[in-house]
UniProtKB/TrEMBL annotation, chains A, B:
InterPro entries: AceGlu_kinase-like_sf, Ald_DH/histidinol_DH, Ald_DH_C, Ald_DH_N, Aldehyde_DH_dom, Asp/Glu/Uridylate_kinase, G-glutamylP_reductase_CS, G5K_ProBA. NCBIfam families: P5CS, PRK00197.1, proA, proB. This is Delta-1-pyrroline-5-carboxylate synthase. Transmembrane segments: none annotated. GO terms for cellular component: mitochondrion. It comes from Plakobranchus ocellatus. One of its GO terms (biological process) is L-proline biosynthetic process. It catalyses: L-glutamate + ATP = L-glutamyl 5-phosphate + ADP; L-glutamate 5-semialdehyde + phosphate + NADP(+) = L-glutamyl 5-phosphate + NADPH + H(+).
Amino acid sequence: MLSQRAATLYRACRGLSQGLSAVGIHQPRHCNRLAAVLINPKYRCYATEVNDEEDFLQPHAALLRSDLNKVKRIVIKLGSAVITREDECGLALGRLGSIVEQVAELQNQGREMIMVTSGAVAFGKQKLRQEAVLSMSMRQNLNSIESGGRPPTLEPRACAAAGQSGLMSLYDAMFLQYGVKTAQILVTKPDFQNEHSRENLRETISELLKLNIIPIVNANDAVAPPPEPDMDLAGVISVKDNDSLAARLASELNSELLVIMSDVDGLYTAPPGMPDSRLLHTYSPDRDQVIIAGKSRVGTGGMDSKVKAATYALARHCSVVICNGCEENAIVNIVKGKKVGTFFTNAVHKGTPVELQAKKAREGSRKLQALSGMHRAAIVNRLADLLLERQADILAANQQDVQEAFAEGMQQSDMARLYLSEQKLETLATGLRQIGTDSVDAVGKVLQRTQMAEGMVLEKISVPIGVLMVIFESRPDALPQVAALSICSGNGLLLKGGKEAKHSNKILFSLVQEAIEPFAPIDTVALVSRREDIADLLHLNQYIDLVVPRGSEELVTRIQQQSQGIPVLGHSEGICHVYVDQDADLEMALHIVKDSKCDYPAACNSMETLLIHKDHRHSLFFDKMCEMLRLQGVTVHAGPKLGQVLKFGPSLAASMKTEYGSLECAIEIVEDLDEAIEHINKFGSSHTDSIVTNNDESAAKFLKMVDSACVFRNASTRFADGYRFGLGAEVGVSTSRIHARGPVGIEGLLTYKYVLTGTGQAASDFSAGKEKFIHERLPLISD
Amino acid sequence: MLSQRAATLYRACRGLSQGLSAVGIHQPRHCNRLAAVLINPKYRCYATEVNDEEDFLQPHAALLRSDLNKVKRIVIKLGSAVITREDECGLALGRLGSIVEQVAELQNQGREMIMVTSGAVAFGKQKLRQEAVLSMSMRQNLNSIESGGRPPTLEPRACAAAGQSGLMSLYDAMFLQYGVKTAQILVTKPDFQNEHSRENLRETISELLKLNIIPIVNANDAVAPPPEPDMDLAGVISVKDNDSLAARLASELNSELLVIMSDVDGLYTAPPGMPDSRLLHTYSPDRDQVIIAGKSRVGTGGMDSKVKAATYALARHCSVVICNGCEENAIVNIVKGKKVGTFFTNAVHKGTPVELQAKKAREGSRKLQALSGMHRAAIVNRLADLLLERQADILAANQQDVQEAFAEGMQQSDMARLYLSEQKLETLATGLRQIGTDSVDAVGKVLQRTQMAEGMVLEKISVPIGVLMVIFESRPDALPQVAALSICSGNGLLLKGGKEAKHSNKILFSLVQEAIEPFAPIDTVALVSRREDIADLLHLNQYIDLVVPRGSEELVTRIQQQSQGIPVLGHSEGICHVYVDQDADLEMALHIVKDSKCDYPAACNSMETLLIHKDHRHSLFFDKMCEMLRLQGVTVHAGPKLGQVLKFGPSLAASMKTEYGSLECAIEIVEDLDEAIEHINKFGSSHTDSIVTNNDESAAKFLKMVDSACVFRNASTRFADGYRFGLGAEVGVSTSRIHARGPVGIEGLLTYKYVLTGTGQAASDFSAGKEKFIHERLPLISD
C-alpha cells in the first residue's frame, strides 16, 4: 500500500497525465489510452469531509476590491452560457480563448488558478451530430430533411463523454500557448459527500498547484445522470450543480477568490430590464443596507443558485465575484480591483456609498430650494465666519498638503495654487459674503410674464438646476467658492477635489457642513473621496443634473464620454487671441498684449496667438512688440505667413491651435479684419478674443462675427473671469455653447420653470374657438 | 502524367491532408508523418502568371458597404499584431478564437472564406523557447538569469518551422468546433512570380473552396529568408509581404472582398494622435475629394504597404476593408455593412457626405448670423409664400407618402400626423409669418449691461447657438416649422425626418432652400437622408452644437449615448399629473381632467395620472369623475393606495411611471398636498403637472416644490405647448434641466456672448490697485 504522500503524488500525476492526454499533438503517445481512462470511475477523485481545523489555512480577513490584487489562489467557474455561442452553434472560441489568456496570465504572475468548467456537452453535441449524420443512410437523411431538417437526437451523456476529451484537449492546447500545463479532475456530486474522497481531492489539487499546473474541474456527466432527463443543454450540466461545486471547491481549497462567470452582469436590485434595475457592484449578504432605497428585491435571472453558492463561499472566507463572462478582460480586471460584476464581501465600506450621497444631495437640494434667499445667504455668511474662526486649523491642514506635495516634487505654479494663507482666507470670506448678498433674489425671480388669455398668466421663473457635481483641481479655495455658489443658487452639490489638497478639502468641507446644519440637511453638499467613484456617479442621471469638470481638456473629454445622459458644462482649452487692427492705438496694443500674455500665462484667459494686420509688419511697432515680448521672456513662434516673410528669427509654430500656458506665444500676420476673424473662428477655442482698434465699424464686425464666449474691444483677454465680470466667483469658465458660456456664476447654475396660473381653462375651449389667446408680454413686477 | 484536372484535385487533397495533419487529436494517424511534410518544399504550391482574360470571372461592379452582405468570396488577412498579444507573450487566443468564430459563421452561411495569416514565428518562438531552456545546462541557465534573465536567442526560421505545424493545428482544432475543415497553403514570394505555379495555386484553392474547405495561406518562412536578418518579430514576417500576398491572392481568385486586419483602426486623415486626425470610413484612391477639408495627408502608421495592397486589389475589382483586428465582431459587422475600419471603394457616393453637409451648415450659419433680423424674417416669409404657391406639388408628394404608409399598415393616429391638407398648409404659413415677425430682434439683443470699471462696459448679448441637428418624427409640417425657428434664430440646421414622410420632406426641404437662396448659402439647412448618417454626425462636435431628438425616450437615450460631446436637448416621456386638492373647485377639476386626458391622449402633455386628495374619496365628486372618464372611454387603473381601499373596480396600475399615450390613466389617492408633491417628483418626468385648488397657499407650495418644467394652477396640462405659450412654434418640449426647459421656441435656440468694450485696460492695473471695478448694473437700452 502506498504511503499517504505517495498516494497524493500518484493522484496528482494521474490528473496531470489525464490532462496531457488530451493534447494529441503534443503528447501523441497518451492519445488513445487515456481517452478511455477519463470515463473510468476507477480514476475519479473523491472528496471527503474534513473536520480537523488545522487542515485549513488561516481564514482570510474580509477583503475589499482593492485587496484582490494580493489574492493568490483563485477559482474561476465558467458557465455553459460563457463557453457556448449565443446561437448554440458550438463553442464561443473568442471568449474561451480570452479567458484562457487571462487565466494563464494570472498563473504566470505566480498565482494558483483553478478552473471549474462546463461545456463538455456542447462540445460533444457538435462532434456527435456530424458523426450521426454521416452514419445515417441517405434515405434517413432525406427523411430528416423533409420532416423539417431536425438534426438527429443525441443522448446528453454520450455528448458529455464524447465532448470531455475534446474540451480538455482544447484547453490544453490553448494553455500550452502560454507555457501553462493543465490537469483534469472529474467529479460527480455524490462523490463530493464522501469524507475520504474529499480529502484526496484537496490533496491532489494542492499537489498539482505546487507543480504549477492548473487543475480543470468538471462534473463527470458521462456517468452522473442529468438531474432532469428531458431538460435542454443548459439543464444537463445544471448550473446549480457547477456553481455549488465551485463554491465547495473554493472553500475546501481555502481559495481567496471565486469568480463565477455567466451571461448576466451580476446581481441587480430588480429583475434586469425593469425600470430602476441597477447592477450592484458590492453585495454583503449579512447587511441589507447595502441595497439602497429600500429595494431588497434581487433579480432572479437564474441568479438564485449563484447567490447561494457565493454566500456559501463567502461564509467560508472566500470573496466572490459574479460577473459576465462576455465582458472583455473581466478576470484580469477583477484582480486589478476594477468594478466588474457584483463583489460579495463582508468587508465594511469606508464612507458612504456614492449612490447614497447623490440621493441625499437630491433630497437636500429640495430642502435648500424651499428656503428663502435670506436663509441661503445666511449659510454662506456663516461659512465665511467659520473660515476666519477656524483659520489656524485650516492653515495647519493646508500645511500638511503643502508639505506632502513638496515631498512629491509638485511644480512651483501648482504649489502656489495649493497654498492657503491668512490673506487668502480673508479675501475668500469677503468674496463669499458678496455672493450671499448678491444672490438673495436670484432664485424664484420672474424672468418673463405673459398674459396668455383672459384670466391666465404665464410666468417664467428662475429655479435651481438641482444637483451639481463639480470636479476641481488641487486648489482648496475653490471648495468654499463652489459650495457658496451652489448653496446660494439652491443646488445640491457633489464635490471632488484634487487629491493633493485632501487635508485642506476635508476641513473646508466640514465647515461647509457646519454652516448648512441649522438650515438644511448636511449631506446636501457631499465630498466624493475616490476618483473611481466619479464614473459611478456619472451613471446616476436620476440624481445628478449637471457635471462641471474644471481641468484639462482630456478630463473634460473623459467625463463627457463616461456621462450617461448627464449634461457636462465643459471648460476646454483657452486659445485666446489679440488682434491688432490697422487702426489700432499702438501704445494701447502693446499694453494689452503685454497684460494678455504676461500677467498670468498659466491662466486659460491668457493670449496664445497675436494676430497683427499686415500694415504693421514693416513698422517700428512690430519691432517694439517683439522687443517687449523678448524683455518679458516670452518665446515667440511664427505662424506660417509670418514664417514665410521672415528670413531668420523665431521658429515656426507647430500648430496654430496650441495652448502654450506659459511665456510662449505665436504671432501671425493677417491681410485684413476678415482674415483675422476667420483665423480666430478656425483655430481658436471660442473662449476669449480681443481686438485693438479705434475703428468702430471694424470693432462692431469683430464683436459680432467672432464666435467666442467673450469678445473684447480694447481690453486685455485677462478680464474674462467671474470675479472681474462682477459675478462674485465662478464655478468655471464654460466653453460649451449652450446653457452657460464664459465665466459661470450663480446665474449659470440656475434654470427656469414655466408657472401658469389659470382659472379653470381647458385647451379644447381654445381650439373650439370659445376662448382666445392674447399672448401679451406683461411688465416684470420686480427687477 | 496526371491530367490537368487530376493534378488539381491531387493538389487540393494534398492541401487538405496537410491541414488535417495538424489536428493530432482528431486525426492521430497523420500526426508525425505530415508534420515533416509541411516544410518539405516538394509539396509547396506555386503560383503562375495568367494572362488569359477568360480565366477571370466577370469583374465586379464597384460596391458600397451595403452591398457587402451579398459578397461570396472573402479573403481575410491577419497581421502578426492581431494574432500575438500586446505583451508579446504568445498568441492572443481571445482574438484568434473570435476571428475563427466569425470566419466559420460566414463560411457556414455559404460564403467562400480564405485566410492569409501571420503568426507562425510567434507561435514557434514560444514553443522553442521552452525547449531551449530545458536543453540548457543548469549552469547556462543560472548564467542567463544572472545576466539579466535574457531568454535564449532563437533563429526566426527555426521558429517559423516549429510554429507552422502548431499554428495550423490550432486553427484546425478551432475551426472543427464549427464543423469547418481547413487546408494549408504555404507560399513564398518568389514562387508567386512563376506563371505556372500561380495557375496551380488558383486551381488548388478553387478546388478546396468547392469542397467547402477554408484554405489558410501563409508565407513559407521556413525556407524563405527573412527580408532583414536582424529585424524583430514583426519584421521577419514582413507585414508588407503578407499584405501584398493577400491582395495578389484576392485578385487572382476574383475575391469580392479583402479584409486586412492589423492593430490600427484604419486610414486616418493625419497621423493618429494629431489633432484633427480622423478615421476615414471610406476611401477612394482615385478621387481625392472624399478627403474633406483639403486634408490630403494620410496617416503613415505602417499604413503605406496596406494602402498599396488595398489599392492594388481595388484596381482589380476587389473591395477592401482595412480594420482593427481587436475590434469585436469586426468581420461579421463588415459583411453586415457596418462602418468598421476604412472601406476602399471606387463606388461614387450618393448624395453629399454628411461631414461636408455639417461643415457647410456651419459656414452657412455664419452668413445667416451676419444678416439682419429683417432679412432672416424675409426668408421665413418667402417660405410661407412658397407653401401656398406650391400647394399642389406639396399635397401630391404628401399623397404619395400617405398611400405608401397606408399600404404598409400605418396606424390611424400616425396617419393623421403624416397627412397634409390645404388647411394645414395655410395654418402653417400663418405660423411661419408670426415666427418671422416675433423674432426680428431676437438675435443680438442686449440681455444685461454692466459698468465694469471707468470706461469699460460689459454686455451680455443673445447669439445663435451655431448649428443644430433636429431629428423629428414622420410629421412633415415639422420641417418648415423647425427650419423657420432655426433660420430666425440664425442657426445652421441639419434635419433628419421620419422616412415615412420622405416625399413630403423632400419637396418642403427644396422650398426651404429656395427661400434661403437670395440671402444665404442654400446648404445652411441640409436634409440628412440616411438613418445611419446620424451616428456619424454625432461625432462631428466641431460642426454641430446641439442635437434635438424628437421622439421616443429610447431614441433620446440612444442619441445621448452616441453623441461625442454634442449636447442633446432631450424630450423624454411626458408623465403628467393633475392633482385635485382638498380645496378644489370640483366642477373645474372635472373640466380640467377631462381636457388634460381626453383632448389629445397621444400628446406628451396629456395627463397620465390623476391624484386626488383623500377627502374626495367618498364624495359624489369621486363617482362623477369616474363616470366622466368612463363616458369618455378612458380605461382607469388604480394606484396602490386606491387599489387597497377598492373592493372591486379598476385593475391595479403596473407602475406609476407609465406613459399610456392613449385613453387610459391611473388614479391614486394622496393623504395631503405634500404627498402629492412627493408622488409627482418621484414618479413624474418633470414635464407638466397641474394643481386644481382655490387655496393660494397650497398653490404656491405646489408651484414652488414640484420639480417640473411646467407647473400649472387651475389649468389643463395641455397648455404646455409652444404655440399656446406664445412662442409661435416649438422645436420640441425639453425635459432636460439645463439650457431650455419645456416648449422650446426661438429663445431656446439662442445662447449668449459677453461683449466687453474697454479703453485699453489691463487686468494687472486692477490687481496693482491702479484701477477699481465698479460692477454697476446699467439699464438695458431696448426691451
